[in-house]
Specification:
The protein is mainly α and about 100 residues long. The chain is built from five helices and no strands. The protein has helices spanning about 1-10, 10-45, 50-55, 60-70, 90-105. Keywords: Membrane, Mitochondrion, Mitochondrion inner membrane, Transmembrane, Transmembrane helix. It is a single-pass membrane protein. This is Cytochrome c oxidase assembly protein COX16 homolog, mitochondrial.
């Protein structure tokens, strides 16, 4: 009986067993919550048939987008500075328009 009391009050029973119970119980609980997440995703992940038809009518492929990029002129571009946080965007736009007007004249 004394050995059983000493074992019960030892570090293994005080710290080790509760730790193992938390780890094992937590893994089972986490698995259940993850399964709920995937079940909800399957229910809400379905696409409306009308939207599916609309997507089939307008196919966008990687090749078509690449052809659009090839047609655009990427060599002639201008870096346009936006307003800083402390600047008023309307005054910056006015200054920019004025500078463009002077440049084209």
């Amino acid at each position: 009986m004394e050995k059983l009391r000493r074992l019960w009050r030892g570090r293994t029973m005080t710290f080790g067993v509760p730790l193992l119970l938390y780890l094992i119980g937590g893994s089972f609980g986490l698995r259940e919550f993850a399964q709920i997440r995937y079940d909800v995703h399957q229910l809400h992940g379905k696409i409306d048939p009308a939207l599916k038809e609309k997507l089939k009518q307008n196919p966008v492929t990687l090749e078509s987008e690449y052809e659009k990029l090839e047609k655009s002129n990427l060599d002639n571009w201008e870096n346009i500075r936006g307003p800083s946080l402390w600047e008023d965007s309307r005054t910056v736009q006015k200054q920019r328009r004025e500078a463009l007007r002077l440049k084209t004249e």
